[in-house]
Write a structure and sequence with these properties.
Shape: elongated
Order of helices and strands: HHHHHHH
CATH architecture of the largest domain: Up-down Bundle
Oligomer: single chain
Number of helices: 7
Strand content: under 5%
CATH class of the largest domain: Mainly Alpha
Number of strands: 0
Structural class: mainly alpha
Number of domains: 2
Distance between the termini: 53 Å
Helix content: over 70%
């Protein structure tokens, strides 16, 4: 828009409907965990949330392509995306922090070390180790742990490679080479889907062959919390990139104006960096 004016969008019903859909999904998830009910309510909330997001994003795309956004709006979008990614950093920092706390403080205390070593009186026979295959008390630990040099290493190479292919696609868009952008973005989406499939295979192996479950002590719970939430972010990121691919095929974005695509790149690179941390501190060390 000319004249330096700031676009104010009309009143929207999507924030309220999105909140209701998210609440329905979380209530359904809680009912599964607490009462063991089926996932109909959670599935309904999830479908409703996807519908709201799709319609909301449709409106934003129409506003953008209609020329309603100016430089100030572009700065607002960039700041908003930066703060969103920062909140995601803090989200994963909490889970990494829990992992480091257990390994650095809680386990040594239970083994009689440190300022709170008196905790060793709870289970005198306990020996601190990581991975914790023999938790104290009546908890059954996993039978063994996954090798980091098999499926986890393959997934690491896939995600690192996907960051490279996405960077190539982004550079192609900035140079106006749409065919290059389309092809390399397609490769990135396929790599993301490959990661999801391989992690599904890994979960099957972990659960049924290695005894790594949410009930398998602190190792099992931290393993699934960290890798599970990351896997959910990969699914979200791959979905976003697939939408970007559809928009590229429809002729959206320009070499000098494509923050929607750039924001998707930011998110995907963030997900890749988190996985490198997971690979090192969950699988290797």
């Amino acid at each position: 828009m000319s004249g330096g004016s700031y676009y104010v969008p009309p009143t929207s019903k999507w924030p309220v409907l999105g909140s209701l859909a998210l609440g329905l999904m979380l209530i359904g998830f809680g009912m599964i965990l607490v009462y063991g009910l089926n996932g109909v309510m959670m599935a309904a909330g999830f479908v409703a949330l996807l519908a709201v997001m799709g319609l909301w994003f449709r409106d934003v795309i129409r506003e953008s392509r209609g020329g309603l956004y100016d430089a100030q709006m572009d700065r607002s979008f960039r700041q908003g995306m930066a703060w969103f990614i920062f909140s995601e950093v803090m989200f994963f920092a909490a889970f990494f922090g829990a992992l480091f706390y257990v390994r650095t403080f809680a386990l040594p205390w239970l083994d009689g070390e440190g300022a709170k070593g008196v905790a060793a009186l709870l289970w005198p026979e306990f020996t601190a180790s990581w991975p914790l295959l023999e938790p104290p008390g009546d908890v059954a630990g996993p039978r063994e742990v996954l090798s980091p040099w098999q499926l986890p290493l393959v997934n690491t190479l896939i995600l690192v490679g996907s960051s490279i292919t996405l960077t190539v696609a982004h550079e192609g868009l900035k140079e106006g080479m749409r065919e290059t952008t389309r092809n390399w973005l397609l490769v990135t989406v396929l790599l993301g889907l490959s990661f999801i499939v391989i992690q599904g295979v890994e979960y099957y192996e972990a659960y049924y062959h290695y005894g790594i479950t949410l009930e398998a002590g602190i190792y099992g719970s931290t393993f699934f919390l960290l890798t599970g939430f990351h896997g959910a972010h990969v699914i979200i990121g791959a979905t976003i990139l697939a939408v970007m691919l559809l928009r590229i095929l429809r002729g959206h974005f320009a070499a000098e104006n494509h923050f929607g695509f750039e924001a998707a790149c930011w998110y995907w690179h963030f997900v890749d960096v988190v996985w490198v941390g997971l690979f090192l501190f969950v699988y290797v060390f």
